[in-house]
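Narrative of activities, Objective 1.

The group set out to show that a structural description can be obtained from nothing but a protein's sequence at a throughput compatible with the screening campaign. Below is one input-output pair from the validation batch, recorded exactly as produced.
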Amino acid sequence: MGFSLHPRLAADTAPVCDLDLCTVRLMNDARFAWLVLVPMREGAVEITDLIQADRTLLMAETCRAADALRAVAPCDKLNVGALGNLVPQLHVHVVARVEGDAAWPGPVWGSGAAKPYDDGWMDSLAAAIREKLA
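Output recorded for this entry:
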């Protein structure tokens, strides 16, 4: 069986690019520059479900994505987390936080309603991140 993206992740994000392990997605919430990395391993729910080599690669790709995000969306803090309470498929959030943003200093999860990007801006941001990841 091949990899398939959870429907909620597909609905809430837009594709940026695929790395060796993860597909990188941009959360459709203009309040925060927010990436989601999803390891392309069918059935992975927890990081411990990955083989050791994939765990190492997940960390490397998470750091790479964080550096790319910070380069295009300067921030005061990067939040990285793998929660999965609503979506059981293993995925890692990388969120660029700016002091005074819509959820500051609390977590972004469950903080108000998402504000979708305006036309074209999401594609532009995804392209800039994709360029940094290339």
